[in-house]
Structures are given as structure tokens and as C-alpha cells.
């Protein structure tokens, strides 16, 4: 190899060595190796956030709507319904009222054959006879006592027996009156309606044995008589909202069967104590029901007008439900490599209205930045 060729070879080796050194220096000055993502965190490039439609927004207070949504059901107005039980035990021999029939007050509904009726009637007759006998005995002892022909003890015994007989007759009459019978001895008891209305429920049939409502145990309700031209809506309000609900507040009621209908009314009752089990307060409104569209036991939703207030609120799209946990993605700043660090963070919420805002009751502070869109994408990127 000549001198010129050797010199050229040396220059080529020096150039390759220089390039290697420069590449090594460039590599050493580049960004440090990426850190490993932690559980519950997403590290995402800003460009990827834009492509995925992920936006961040600061948490702030917002005026919450002045309506409180709650659930309940349609019920009879207590002043327009009668639950009919039998005051005697016996066997149903005849039914004179059918479902859907409009009955008058005092109209016969059914006839029950009961030995208790005969016993009650005979008790009145026996008590009357005992009263007459004790009255005669007392009058006789009174005459003898005035003549000094009997002792005061005998006189007082006769007087006591007379008073007991009077009390027994009154008791027998009250029992007979309660059973709807008089002094005539009979085995038949006529069950009558206490109010005018429609027969909306019947639970007996001919030949059926029924128990007295005064007997031990629970007696069967035989008939329900009612009118539904006015109905109640009974709803439950949670403890946290109990002090916000006032009587005379306007309400709007909807039922599942009539999704396009809105029934307006006012609260006429707000409970004075919470249910110890559900921790809810019972409220009630009265609705006119001239078309009889609302039926007792229908499920209903009630929007109650309450005083407006301001509270921390976030868009509904920022909320993610994972099982029984409610979370948001909280911004924890930018990493050294430029990626955004978003942390899955649990919060407590209270849904107020279908306006798109959800009230935050615990977990966030004013000014915290959270993801308000694309949370489903962020959830899919969790390690």
C-alpha cells in the first residue's frame, strides 16, 4: 500500500470514529427513559389527547336547578277510600256487589252466616231479662230497708246487682250495634259499605270462611271501596334534602304509563320525622284526576320546586361509574417528557336535574382540573 492510500485509510477511520462519538453524545443528551405508568394513572401525549377529544376543565361552582327529583307512587286519598273487613267470623253465603260496581253508602256488599250474630242478639235479650229481675229485687229490698225489715247489706247487694245488670245490658247492646244487628235472633250478618264509591277490590267468594277483624291475628280485607277523582302522590325525600322541601311547593308528576303527560299539584304534607330504615322523609301532594288516568300503586316521579343554590358541579360526561364507585380523571400536571398525567380519582355526587351538570359533594375542590370528555378512552388506557 502506498503512502497516499495509507493516509486515506487513516482519514476514513478517523471519520467513522468521530461519527460514532457524535452519535453517542447525541444519545446521551436525549430525553431520559420513560418511567413505568402507575396503577390508576394515565400518561398521555398532548397530541393523542387532541385526537381522542379529551378536554380538561377547572372545577367551579354553578347554580343548581330549583327542582328536586324523587320517586314515589300513586295512592288513594284516605278520605275517599274504605277498606272493608268483617266484624264477625263466619261463612260467606251471598255476595251482592261486584268489581267495578258503584255502590252507595250503606249498600249491602255481602251476607255472612255467623253464630256470633245469634249469640250477640241473644245476649241482649238475656241482659234485658236480667235487668228486669235485678230491678224488681232492688225495688223490693229498698221497700224492706225503709221498713227496717232487711239489713243494709242486703239492700246494697241488691243495688249492686241492679247496677251490674244495667251495665251488662249496655255492653250487649254495644256489641250488637257493632255487629250491625238488633234484638232479633238471627245468624246472618249483612256487610255494608261505609262510603259511596266504586268496588275496586274484592277478595271473597261464596262459601269462603272469613275471620273477624277483632280476632287474634290478621283479618283479610274483603272489599276496597274508593273513588279516584282525586289521588295522592306519596314520595320519599332523602335526609340531605329534607330541610329544602316545604309545604305548598309546586310539583310536577309523571308516571311510566303516561310518559307524555305532566300532572301539576302542590305539596300539602311534609313529614315531621325520617323513616329509621331508609332515612327518607315522606311527602305528599294531591292531584285532580277527572279522567281517571292515574291509578293507585302506579310508580311516579315527582319534581319538587325548592330554593336554588350554588355548588361545585361538573359536566355529566366527566363522571365515570366503575361498579359501585364514581370517579373522575384528575389532572396531576405534566411529566418531564411532556405527557399529561391523569389520575383516576373517587368522588361523591348528588344528581340534581337532567341539565347536564352533576353536583360534587366530596372529593374535589374549586380550581381542580379534570377531564370533561373522553373519560371512556382514558379508562381503556389504564394499566
Summed up:
The chain is an alpha+beta fold and 383 residues long.
Q: What characteristic shape results from the CA principal axes?
A: elongated
Distance between the termini: 62 Å
- CATH topology term of the domain at 41-64 and 310-380: conserved putative lor/sdh protein from methanococcus maripaludis s2 fold
Low-confidence stretches: 14-34
**Main β-sheet, spatial strand arrangement:** 4-13-16-15-14-17
**Helix/strand order:** HEHEEEEEEEHHEEEEEEEEEEEEEEEEH
Strand runs, count: 24
Main sheet properties: 6 strands, antiparallel, barrel
Write a structural description.
The chain is of the alpha+beta class and 383 residues long. Among the domains are: 41-64 and 310-380, conserved putative lor/sdh protein from methanococcus maripaludis s2 fold, CATH 2.40.420; 68-79 and 226-308, Beta Barrel (Elongation Factor Tu (Ef-tu), domain 3), CATH 2.40.30; 120-175, Orthogonal Bundle (Helix Hairpins), CATH 1.10.287. It is 26% helix and 38% strand. The chain contains five helices and 24 strands. It has helices at residues 3-29, 46-52, 115-146, 152-178, 375-380, and strands spanning 41-44, 56-58, 60-64, 67-76, 81-84, 90-95, 102-103, 108-113, 188-192, 197-202, 209-210, 223-226, 230-238, 250-255, 258-274, 280-288, 299-305, 309-315, 320-322, 325-334, 340-346, 348-350, 357-362, 369-371. A six-stranded antiparallel β-barrel has the order 4-13-16-15-14-17. The protein has a four-stranded antiparallel β-sheet with strand order 1-21-20-19. A hairpin with a 6-residue loop joins β22 and β23 (357-362). α3 (115-146) runs antiparallel to α4. The protein starts with a helix and ends with a helix. Mean pLDDT is 84; it is low at 14-34.
Amino acid at each position: 500500500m502506498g503512502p497516499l492510500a495509507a493516509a486515506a485509510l487513516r482519514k476514513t477511520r478517523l471519520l467513522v470514529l468521530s461519527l460514532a462519538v457524535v452519535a453517542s453524545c447525541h444519545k446521551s443528551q436525549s430525553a431520559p427513559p420513560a418511567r413505568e405508568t402507575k396503577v390508576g394513572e394515565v400518561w398521555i401525549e398532548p397530541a393523542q389527547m387532541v385526537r381522542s377529544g379529551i378536554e380538561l376543565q377547572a372545577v367551579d361552582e354553578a347554580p343548581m336547578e330549583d327542582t328536586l327529583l324523587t320517586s314515589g307512587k300513586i295512592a288513594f286519598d284516605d278520605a275517599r277510600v274504605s277498606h272493608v273487613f268483617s266484624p264477625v267470623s263466619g261463612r260467606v253465603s251471598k255476595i251482592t256487589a261486584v268489581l267495578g260496581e258503584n255502590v252507595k253508602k250503606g249498600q249491602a256488599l255481602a251476607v255472612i252466616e255467623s253464630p256470633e250474630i245469634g249469640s250477640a242478639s241473644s245476649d241482649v235479650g238475656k241482659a234485658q231479662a236480667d235487668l228486669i229481675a235485678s230491678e224488681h229485687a232492688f225495688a223490693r229490698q229498698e221497700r224492706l230497708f225503709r221498713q227496717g225489715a232487711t239489713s243494709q247489706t242486703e239492700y246494697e247487694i241488691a243495688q249492686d246487682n241492679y247496677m251490674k245488670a244495667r251495665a251488662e245490658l249496655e255492653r250487649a247492646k254495644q256489641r250488637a250495634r257493632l255487629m250491625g244487628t238488633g234484638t232479633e235472633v238471627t245468624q246472618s250478618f249483612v256487610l255494608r259499605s261505609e262510603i259511596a264509591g266504586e268496588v275496586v277490590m274484592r277478595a271473597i267468594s261464596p262459601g269462603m270462611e272469613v275471620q273477624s277483624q277483632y280476632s287474634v291475628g290478621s283479618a283479610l280485607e274483603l272489599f276496597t271501596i274508593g273513588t279516584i277523582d282525586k289521588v295522592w302522590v306519596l314520595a320519599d325525600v332523602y335526609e340531605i334534602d329534607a330541610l329544602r322541601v316545604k309545604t305548598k311547593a309546586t310539583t310536577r308528576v309523571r308516571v311510566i304509563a303516561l310518559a307524555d303527560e305532566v300532572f301539576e299539584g302542590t305539596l300539602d304534607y311534609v313529614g315531621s320525622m325520617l323513616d329509621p330504615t331508609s332515612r327518607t322523609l315522606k311527602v305528599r301532594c294531591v292531584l285532580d284526576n277527572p279522567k281517571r288516568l292515574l291509578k293507585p300503586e302506579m310508580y311516579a316521579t315527582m319534581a319538587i320546586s325548592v330554593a336554588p343554590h350554588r355548588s361545585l358541579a361538573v359536566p355529566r360526561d366527566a363522571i365515570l361509574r366503575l361498579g359501585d364507585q364514581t370517579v373522575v380523571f384528575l389532572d396531576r400536571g405534566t411529566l418531564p417528557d411532556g405527557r399529561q398525567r391523569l389520575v383516576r380519582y373517587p368522588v361523591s355526587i348528588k344528581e340534581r336535574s337532567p341539565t347536564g351538570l352533576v353536583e360534587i359533594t366530596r372529593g374535589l375542590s374549586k380550581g381542580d382540573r379534570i377531564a370533561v370528555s373522553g373519560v371512556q378512552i382514558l379508562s381503556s388506557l389504564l394499566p
